[in-house]
Input
Amino acid sequence: MSTQSCSSFDESQRELEELELATRMEQIGLKLLVLSGKGGVGKSTVAANLAASLARAGKKVGLLDVDLHGPSIPKILGLDGRRIAQSENGSIAPIKLNENLSVVSVGLLLDNANDAVIWRGPMKYNVIRQFLKDVEWGRLDYLVIDSPPGTGDEPLAVAQQVGKNALAVVVTTPQDVAVADVRRSVSFCKTLDLRIAGIIENMSGLACPHCGKTVDLFKVGGGEKLAAEMNVPFLGRIPLDPNIVLSGDSGSPFVESSADGIAARAFAAAIMPILNRTKQDDALFAKQHSKENNSMKIAIPVADGVLCMHFGHCQQFAIVDVDADAKTVTNTTYLTPPPHEPGVLPRWLHEQGANVIIAGGMGQRAQGLFAENGIKVVVGAQGGDPQAVVQAYLSGDLQTGQNICDH
Ligand code: ADP
Output
């Protein structure tokens, strides 16, 4: 797969790719991004089995694994050693697992598992873009996307590129520590305006192979409690099932090979709210969301009184309070940021209550750090008095050019 650096990216080429990506995404109904705050909670297992359960429900489903550093879908589906070829025009044909379910994993394209390790932020963005636009899925009802744990470059690149018809499924385990991680995923989604289909609590109790009941090994219910607290749906508990570990060897998703087991039934139940989503749900979300966003604090990096292109080295930040409903600026404060070091500005601006930053250029890594801190990033703005920039943003007239990468 070819990759191009951000700086050499030709503008007309980018426009063409945007168009190809939008066309591809239009052929796909709902995109489901499976996220987790940390690794090892069963995110890939859940992604594979959600996809298989939707396919069993008669839907056309694609499963895309863009975990560039540790793609585990091939192992889970018994596809280790298989390879996918990329044709000369760049298109990728998925592996058809059955009539309804096709799969593409970055692990099926890499010759060497270490290839991805050298990819940095902007490269990852472009690689993920190519995966999203180049796979010839045909028409799909659902595309389930497995990206790496956390809120780094890959989930960010997916969330920014799949378009609006997307929902996140957040996977956690019952232990409190995982629950703390999932909070970050939920605020990541909220920052990116990515709706949340719900939280799944995986490894929740043990599906006993002897009595057929679920035995609670740890304190369970953390995911459900968190879902209620954060006002997002709870999709259900998936118990630990020894057959899940074994199913990879059989080369078929677990829900296929153990369709009558407790865990497979739990997956079938977890997809019901997704299958039952209606346009009214989406309208309700939009309404609730606009209420949440009534008041905002917008941060603008400033040098010599105007927006400064290098946000990491600006003299001051203008923190502009706005009433988003009335689309007006209500107050502006100028603050001097702490000395520059990686990660400090997103944290500091979060502490100042900022929920949007309008900047000139910003690299992917920094964008990820802002997203983790609940701050939406608008890039490509140029110059101007902070209040005028914010006013233009509020009225939808803000001119944004190319993101000048600052790495
Ligand atoms: P992640 O993608 O979060 O890193 P994986 O999906 O790769 O996690 O799962 C990690 C390990 O846990 C795998 O060996 C997988 O088979 C196992 N696993 C995940 N969920 C379950 C479950 N509900 N029951 C039994 N084993 C599970």
